[in-house]
Amino acid sequence: MSGNYRKWPMIVFLSILTGPIILMYIYLFVDTVTNTPPGSMVPNEFTLEHWRFLTETIPGRPSIWLATWNTFVFASVTTVIVLVVSSAAGYSLSRLQLPARSFFLGSIMVLHAFPTVTLLIAIFLILQMLGLYNSLSGVILVKISLELPFGIWIMKGFYDTVSWEIEMAGIQDGATRFQVWTKLVLPNVKPAIMALGIFSFLAGWSEFILPLVLAPDNKVQVLSVYLAALIADDNNFDMALFKSVGVFYVLPVIILFIFFQNKLMNIYSGGNKG
Amino acid sequence: MRILLDKFTKKFSDLTVIDEMDLEVRDGEMIALLGGSGCGKSTTLFSICGIHKVNGGRILFGDKDVTNVTSQERNVGVVFQSFALYPHLTVENNIGFPLKLRKESKAEIKRKVDEIAEMVHIEPLLQRRPGELSGGQQQRVALARALIRRPDVLLLDEPLANLDATLRLEMRSEIRRIQQETGITAVLVTHDQVEAMSMCDRIAIMDAGKIIQIAKPRDMYENPVSDYVAGFLGSPPIAFLTGQVQDGNFVEPSTGTKMPLSAEIAASQSGRQVKVGIRPEYFQPDGATKIAGTVSFMESQGRETLYNVTLPDGSILRSIQGVHDPVHIGDRVEWGVDSAEMMVFDMNGLRL
Ligand SMILES: Nc1ncnc2c1ncn2[C@@H]1O[C@H](COP(=O)(O)OP(=O)(O)O)[C@@H](O)[C@H]1O
Ligand SMILES: [Mg+2]
């Protein structure tokens, strides 16, 4: 492969493009552990004071650990439920002769096309009526229902690639329909489950508008709302603190990516070859 | 175990695919369901194993009516056309899967898997996954998985269609060997007459959801009940000529050649239009009833050569001959038909 073209022009070109972005990340990180005198670009002292939010609660804000916990609960509960419901619903839509199957398929597409913002007021009113306003479970429910159309659609697509004959063979070997699903079909859509799981978790982790509107209270605040409140607070404006919380906020995402990188790159379609 | 289909009917919504089929497969016998694509072979097979619900009639295994028994409880082994191995399991776990579902002990499963792996010659492959096997090896695994439960009946849906030519030859005899070693009752679905003739005890030939004839391969080849059956068996295929019966002879219209018929047919069909079928091996240079035509096609098959001879009205006779003095395309030849081996059909295709 390398013989076909010279590498260095590519490398130079890509470096010029990505250089500024990398520089920004480096600055972001450096700024969280240093102080820079006003008017200068070069930091002059090392400090951990911008990370003090980890040990002490900033007045008027929830503890960072509570917010982290809330974010984690929000993202992981969403992920688990989206996974369970999508893999069951996707299977039904792909395989079973449900009444109104095509209607379901069509409406899933339409639902997915709705921007969240257009639904916000209606959802707000409904949650308030149900008494779920300002609660984690309320906003989780909303997030799940908005994620599901995408999840179901993806899962259905992957199930469609698993051959029918595998299921027939399973039945013939004595498995119940449920065993066929869990033991034979699900393992063949594992890449889809991995991918959907990671995407749902990241979507939950970075969700901002829903918790902001539907669960703004300190007790149920998530990191994105916490972060937004920091920058919106004109009285105690602290750029370095904001950056530190920002780094803290993206750290789990980066770890997740490093950890699952290969899996994400390898989303091949399941099913059998040859 | 004997399989009996009694007025078995299968519909897909409005489409009747199989209409009142009767079929008996004897205990320990291997029978071929032979027919063109879409004639309902797979549908019949999947009804026998219980994947399809029947719309009428009965299915019996031995004396037991299994029409309403679920596939899980029928104890039938099936080899699917695509082999349908479970891609995420090793060969060992693929084969052991039916036993695992029955909650047999690990040691027991291992023992049985080893035993069957030895029979189908795949011992070294047990730890591989299906994706790492060749087509023939996958086929063997599929057979092992179908047989490990000691099923009453083995069903094979076009088991050789996905293999290349040499493997097909090898697996043909392997499947037959395994069937005979286990003594299992088997149904083989195929559209390939060579497979049906070479592997099975009897052939049931199907057309449009009906069984046209059931017979031993040789009997069916020599005594087809209709022109459809005659045309299906034999490669290169039989050739048909249409003409009139006059004075005890079949008269080929374009050349006026007279081919003697048996007294019985000559008497009953006198003056009528009939169709005669002539197999390539009975149209030879030294045949008795000479007929002239032009060589329009030649195909060397190594030891033998196939010739198409076109008569003046465009109808074609086929001849298969050992290699001899060269004949070229466009040559006029006068070869002879062995009229005693001619098959006569009425204009509806029924054998006379
Ligand atoms: N699940 C199905 N739904 C509707 N029609 C079917 C189904 N399976 C088969 N058929 C129809 O039944 C006929 C016979 O099919 P099949 O048994 O698969 O033929 P083959 O002899 O090639 O195996 C075909 O016309 C096919 O279109
Ligand atoms: Mg078929």
Describe this structure in words.
The complex is a heterodimer of chains A (274) and B (352). Chain A has a single domain (63-238, 249-270), classed as MetI-like (MetI-like fold), CATH 1.10.3720.10. Chain A has eleven helices and two strands; from the N terminus they run αββαααααααααα. Chain A has helices at residues 8-32, 64-95, 101-113, 116-130, 136-160, 164-172, 177-185, 190-206, 209-214, 223-232, 239-265; strands at 34-35, 45-46. In chain A, strands 1-2 form a two-stranded antiparallel sheet. Chain A is globular and about 75 Å long. With 352 residues, chain B is an alpha+beta fold. Chain B folds into two domains: 3-232, 3-Layer(aba) Sandwich (Rossmann fold), CATH 3.40.50.300; 239-345, OB fold (Dihydrolipoamide Acetyltransferase, E2P) (Beta Barrel). Chain B is built from nine helices and 20 strands. Chain B has a six-stranded mixed beta sheet with strand order 6-7-8-3-9-10, sandwiched between helices. A five-stranded antiparallel beta sheet of chain B has the order 13-12-11-14-20. Chain B is elongated. The two termini of chain B are 36 Å apart. The chains are: A mainly alpha (274), B alpha+beta (352). Bound molecules: adenosine-5'-diphosphate and magnesium ion.
What would a concise description of this structure say?
The complex is a heterodimer of chains A (274) and B (352). By secondary structure, chain A is mainly alpha-helical.
Low-pLDDT stretches of chain B are: none
Query: Which structural class is indicated by helix and strand composition of chain B?
Result: alpha+beta
Which radius of gyration of chain A do the C-alpha atoms yield?
A: 24 Å
Number of helices of chain B: 9
CATH topology of the largest domain in chain B: Rossmann fold
CATH classification, class level of chain A: Mainly Alpha
CATH homology superfamily name of the largest domain in chain B: P-loop containing nucleotide triphosphate hydrolases
Q: Determine the fraction of residues in helical runs of chain B and give it as a percent range.
A: 25-40%
The proportion of residues forming helix of chain A, as a percent range, comes to 55-70%
Stated plainly, the CATH topology of chain A is called: MetI-like fold
Q: What topology, given as strand order, has the largest sheet of chain B?
A: 6-7-8-3-9-10
Question: Roughly what is the average pLDDT of chain B, rounded to an integer?
Answer: 91
Major sheet summary line of chain A:
2 strands, antiparallel
- Biggest interface, and residues per chain? A-B, 22 and 26 residues
